[in-house]
Write a structure and sequence with these properties.
331 residues, alpha+beta, 5-stranded antiparallel β-sheet
Length: 331
């Protein structure tokens, strides 16, 4: 039985070659598939020499594939932000890195306040690295993804026109307020942050490139912090001071863009499963209503209908500024 029987046949030799390059003739003691997350990559835990590693083979490239993810990951690993790298082949889209034995984020010592400070510091450390390569202006990747959603037929013709009009207005505000770019992970959500019992690690660098410094901040506030009381604690750890009026205004602009981006991600997934088409109803539950539906079993984690509802909630957040739903039920 092949160690790699869970992998597509087309990438099994890639996996073998990567492990030979990383470990030579060392005996592989075990291979275990790793499930979960929204990535299309194939991931396996590899046991070698009494230690554990992660073999990650990227899925088929999409038109929006970031060609600089491995450069960004190397920079982050050298800064001690990403797990140490044992082998990378960019052409084959494969990497072998140290496996992080994770613990729940809610076990972080010091509770939510200490975790908020640590997360703000993690964003600051990412942004302090040598600047990642340029890929695309953030509003353009948001627009590209949203144009795709409009083309799928998921919603009735014209239903998403107001959203695109607002995006065009926001892009002007965004461009006028952009003063600098920094290294950015661009997918700073709970599933990409690992706690090993001592410290935090950041993984999955598929979306990493230079970007507006508020992008990771906006994503973190909507996906992990999720508390008005904790937002100032996180932001002060990130910036070293409280946000002034100009920074708060910038945060509002970028936060709207990140919300539309994740609406695009979730609704693209919904469209791919054909769970609905020609939808004319953009109404969305509140966060409290959604949580109640999840507890009652009316919406289940990872299911297409759940992603469809979450996508609508992110659309509502984009248009009105209401609380974003987070991602726990999406994967």
């Amino acid at each position: 039985m092949s160690y790699f029987e869970t992998l597509p046949a087309s990438v099994r030799e890639t996996a073998n070659s990567a492990l030979r390059a990383a470990f030579g003739q060392m005996q592989i003691a075990g291979v275990n598939p790793i499930k979960g997350g929204a990535t299309t990559a194939s991931t396996l835990r590899i046991d070698v020499g009494g230690r554990r590693y992660l073999l990650r083979i990227e899925g088929e490239p999409s038109p929006l594939r970031n060609p600089h993810q491995y450069v960004s990951m190397r920079i982050a690993a050298e800064a001690g932000i990403a797990p140490p790298i044992r082998f990378i082949d960019e052409a084959a889209r494969v990497a072998v890195i140290d496996f992080i034995e994770q613990r729940p984020l809610n076990t972080f010592p010091g509770g939510r306040v200490a975790l908020s400070q640590a997360l703000g510091n993690l964003v600051r450390r990412v942004q302090s690295t040598p600047t990642f390569p340029y890929f695309i202006d953030y509003p353009e990747i948001v627009a590209s993804l949203f144009r795709h959603v409009r083309r799928t037929g998921l919603f009735a013709d014209g239903r998403l026109d107001p959203h695109f009009e607002r995006l065009e207005l926001l892009q002007k505000t965004y461009d006028a307020g952009l003063s600098r770019v920094v290294s950015s992970h661009n997918d700073f959500i709970p599933s990409n942050i690992l706690f090993d019992g001592n410290r935090l690690w950041l993984i999955d660098w598929e979306s990493a490139y230079r970007n507006d410094p508020f992008v990771d901040v906006s994503i973190a506030l909507d996906s992990i912090i999720r508390s008005q009381d904790l937002e100032p604690i996180f932001c002060e750890a990130w910036l070293g001071k409280s946000l002034d009026d100009e920074a708060l205004a910038r945060l509002v602009t970028v936060r709207a863009l990140t919300r539309l981006y994740y609406a695009g991600v979730l609704l693209s997934a919904s469209a791919a499963t054909s769970c609905t088409s020609g939808d004319v109803d953009l109404s969305a539950p509140t966060v409290a209503e959604f949580e109640r539906m999840a507890r009652n079993g009316h919406l289940k984690p990872g299911e297409p209908q759940t992603k469809h509802v979450l996508g609508k909630m992110f659309l509502a957040s984009f248009m009105t500024g209401v609380e974003a739903p987070g991602f726990a039920a999406a994967v």
